[in-house]
């Protein structure tokens, strides 16, 4: 019995190891024009994401932007200054801040609440290329009837073209792959193998654009 369990574990390990280079080679190397969607969500936590989300909003690719995962004590002005720009022209009407998310699961919950509040059907997702597969899986699990359009960005420290030559890049990608595998198992269980939506992890706290002078606090019912 122990020998059988060991062989099964070894097989799982080998399959997972073989899947790693496939995962890496499947990652986007360029950002194609995402077209126009109802809205945009930028997931904080990495280089270039906020700037790309703001640029898409300014170019009319979506009618509204959610910046998910903003620290509770970070002010709007500080957030925009951090990307080296002045307050965007549409910040007063069209940029909402998700204040509660601390990880990708939280990002998905905030986004699902925001999508349900505005009845969006299509949303452009801005995050790092290596983070995109897990993000799309988490988002689709809690908001399966929304079309999520990927718009990847490429942080300088992650060199996808020759990732095997750079220890830092290899480490980042390997850790993300492990998290992707874990998320796949968890989402499969939560959705009964993608046959139903997953439950939202926690209530979302979303600070609306100041022009609306209101807050959305809660989750879709």
Give me some keywords for this one.
221 residues, alpha/beta, globular, disordered C terminus
Quick overview of this protein structure:
By secondary structure, this protein is α/β, with parallel strands linked by helices. The protein has seven helices and seven strands.
How would you describe this structure to a colleague?
It is a single chain. The protein is α/β, with parallel strands linked by helices and 221 residues long. It has one domain. The protein is 43% helix and 16% strand. The chain has helices spanning 2-25, 49-58, 76-81, 91-94, 104-118, 132-142, 167-190, and strands spanning 39-43, 65-68, 95-98, 122-128, 147-153, 204-207, 215-218. It has a seven-stranded mixed beta sheet with strand order 5-4-1-2-3-6-7, sandwiched between helices. Mean pLDDT is 86; it is low at 213-221.
Strand order, sheet with most strands: 5-4-1-2-3-6-7
Q: Summarize the amount of helix as a percent range.
A: 40-55%
Write down how many β-strands occur, each being a DSSP E stretch of 2 or more residues.
7
Count structural domains. 1
Shape: globular
Summarize the main sheet. Answer: 7 strands, mixed
Beta-strand level of the residues, as a percent range? 15-25%
Please provide the ordered H/E string of secondary-structure elements: HEHEHHEHEHEHEE
Mean pLDDT: 86
Structural class label = alpha/beta
Radius of gyration: 19 Å
Number of helices: 7
Residue ranges: pLDDT <50 for 5 or more in a row?
213-221
Q: Termini, distance in Å? A: 47 Å
């Amino acid at each position: 019995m122990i020998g059988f369990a060991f062989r099964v574990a070894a097989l799982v390990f080998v399959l997972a190891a073989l899947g790693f280079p496939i995962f890496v080679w499947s990652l986007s190397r360029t950002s194609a024009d995402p077209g126009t969607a109802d809205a945009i969500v930028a997931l904080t936590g990495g280089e270039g994401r906020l700037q790309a989300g703001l640029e898409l909003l300014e170019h009319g690719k979506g009618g509204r932007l959610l910046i998910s995962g903003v620290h509770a004590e970070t002010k709007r002005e500080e957030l925009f200054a951090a990307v080296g720009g002045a307050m965007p022209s549409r910040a007063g009407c069209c940029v909402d801040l998700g204040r509660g998310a601390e990880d990708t699961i939280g990002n998905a919950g905030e986004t699902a609440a925001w999508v349900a509040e505005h009845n969006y059907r299509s949303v452009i997702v801005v995050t790092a290329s290596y983070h995109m597969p897990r993000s799309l899986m988490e988002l689709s699990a809690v908001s399966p009837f929304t079309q999520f359009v990927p718009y990847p960005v490429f942080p300088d420290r992650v060199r996808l073209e020759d990732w095997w030559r750079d220890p830092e890049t290899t480490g980042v990608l390997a850790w993300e792959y492990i998290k992707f595998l874990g998320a796949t198992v968890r989402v499969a269980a939560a959705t009964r193998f993608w046959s139903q939506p997953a439950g939202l992890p926690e209530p979302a706290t979303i600070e609306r654009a100041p022009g609306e002078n209101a807050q959305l606090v809660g989750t879709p019912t």
